[in-house]
Amino acid sequence: MESPRITKGYCMNLYPFIKPILFRLGAEKAHHIALQSLNQSHQLHLLSTLIGPVPSLPTHFCGLDLPNPVGLAAGLDKDGKYIDALSTLGFGFLELGTVTPLAQAGNPQPRMFRLTESMGVINRMGFNNDGVDACVARVKASAFYQSGGVIGLNIGKNAITPIENASSDYVTCMQKVYGVASYITINISSPNTKNLRQLQGGQDLVELLKTIQGTREQLSQQYGKRTPLFLKIAPDLDDESIQNISQAILEYQMDALIATNTTLSRNGVDNEPFKNETGGLSGLPVRTLSTQIIQKFSQHLQDKIPMIGVGGIMQGDDALQKIHVGAKLVQLYTGLIYQGPQLIKDCIVSLKDHS
């Protein structure tokens, strides 16, 4: 077992002690226990002491002022139940969701699998969430929101909604979250909702973005503010798709691109017992693919639309690589499972040292 370490400006890293206990449990159960324990530590006012000081690296992005460029990716806190605890870890911003208009249970369990040797995770959660209204209520009640913290809401469609009617679900969610979200992410890239990735291409994408653009214009007048819209895309895109998506998001005035979601590829996980489970693969196996997609989009977008890099960030240098190829911010999820909260500071320090 790796020994806990103390470095300058850091408190003791206890995660090497905690990780083996969590890894004895099923992945989804461990996920819930870890978040509940984090929440309890926060409520007992222990968490901030354990985490210690967080390096500052002020960053401006799409009109948002962030204390640092390292955020939480969507999926870890789908319902906004742990906002204040997670904000204490040192994230510059949080992205919650994916939320849908109606509550839904998601896919049957088991639906999350660790690929331990490869430092990856396969999930087929299926947008399990309590519904958009419940999440919005929790955001409003959180101290982080009330103190001006940056919270993005990631929105999607219900499983029972036919793909041809998907835009109505995105409109509903936009209407619900617009008044509270610092930004809104349009998630059309999860592989775990039937036909969802169809929205990434051709006329389906054009019609969706056109509808979203029109809805944003209405809501901006209603609320007197222009909430940024981000699009989250998959890593499993060919060059033609990248070009088409780039043209569409420029034409329909998306504010940023999040690259990437999980992959359907199983490259690099040949020896893993869960390699044949269906779902999206995240973590270290998607690192290179995600970085390549960011680089390709950067060549098409030419800094006209900024990007957030996510996928396989396991150390500070991984975050730095995403920035070098064109991202302005980064987000973490699976890396936290393998490295613990220390990864947040490691990324901030690495980016700060090279800023």
What value does the average pLDDT take?
Answer: 95
Distance between the termini: 34 Å
CATH architecture: Alpha-Beta Barrel
What's the total helix number?
A: 13
The CATH superfamily turns out to be: Aldolase class I
Which blocks of ≥5 consecutive residues have pLDDT under 50? 1-10
How many domains? The number is 1
The CATH class: Alpha Beta
Rg, alpha carbons: 19 Å
- What is the percent of helical residues? 25-40%
Q: Biggest sheet, strands in spatial order? A: 3-4-7-8-9-10-12-13
Do you know the CATH topology? TIM Barrel
What does the largest sheet look like? 8 strands, parallel, barrel
Q: Tell me what portion of residues adopts beta-strand conformation.
A: 15-25%
Order of helices and strands: HHHEEEHEEEHHEHEHEHEEHEHEHH
Q: What is the number of beta strands? A: 13
Q: How would you classify the helix and strand content by structural class?
A: alpha/beta
Question: What general form does the structure show?
Answer: globular
What would you note in describing this structure?
With 355 residues, the protein is α/β, with parallel strands linked by helices. The protein has one domain (57-353): Aldolase class I (TIM Barrel), CATH 3.20.20.70. The protein contains 13 helices and 13 strands. The longest helix is centred in the middle third of the chain and has 22 residues, at 202-223. The chain is globular. Residues 1-10 have low confidence and may be disordered.
